[in-house]
Amino acid sequence: MHEFTIASSIVNSLLEALEGYPGAERVDEVDLVIGELSFAGIEQVTYCFGVLIEERKQLKGCRLNVTTEEGRAHCKECGYEGALNMGSGPGYHHILPVFACPKCKGEVDITAGQSVSIRNAKLIIKDEVD
Known about the structure:
alpha+beta, 2 domains
């Protein structure tokens, strides 16, 4: 289950980011982008994230907003740039899929949709009263 590893990486990144902001008390909200070619389940990542933040004071109650990024490719043969035909069968989740150009069936380079990334994080900063 690579969703647990993804959620752990998000939590570690957020804790590391907090260290870089003096006065930051906690993370309130996170915007996460999950590429459809990462094959990460949104519900599983969200669940794992919720479990991992429960015991961390700086992250407890943090909202996770998830959007998806479409898988896109560039064809080396005909120059097509655009979306890929994604299969919905279980083979796409159990083996390494090989994608071909939807127009000419040529070899493609994947240009988007492979990663999981934090787009934004909202931190709560402690007010300093003189």
